[in-house]
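Hello,

Our lab assistant flagged a job as stuck in the queue for most of the afternoon. It eventually completed. Since we weren't sure the result was trustworthy after the delay, we are filing this so someone can double-check. Below is the sequence as submitted and the structure that was eventually returned. Let us know if re-running is recommended.
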Amino acid sequence: PDVYATGHCFVLPARFGGSFSIMVLEALAAGVPVVSTPFVAPEHRDEHWDPVHLTRDYSPSAIAEGIITVLNEDPTPRVALGRHVVAEYDWARIGERIEAVYQRVLEAHRG
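-- returned structure --
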């Protein structure tokens, strides 16, 4: 995260690979606005992706427009929302969710 924090924004011009990027979470955790292509989160398009500026397509001009947009915005709201999203993916929070699932399964099994 320290490396991410040195930039004015993080750009992930992904065209293939995993659809959920840990790099996006790392950049958000560092408080850096994120620009990414639509590929990164097609099935994760919910409020968690609000802090990420998704470009209209994969073209260099769309990515450049995204960068310019993010650099001209006040980063405060996007960064604050990004930190909230990162908190949702904290391992302690994930552990709580998994434990809750196990509890529901045990309760259903018992009866």
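-- support follow-up --
The delay was a queue issue, not a problem with the job. The result is valid. The first helix runs from residue 2 to 5. The mean pLDDT is 82.
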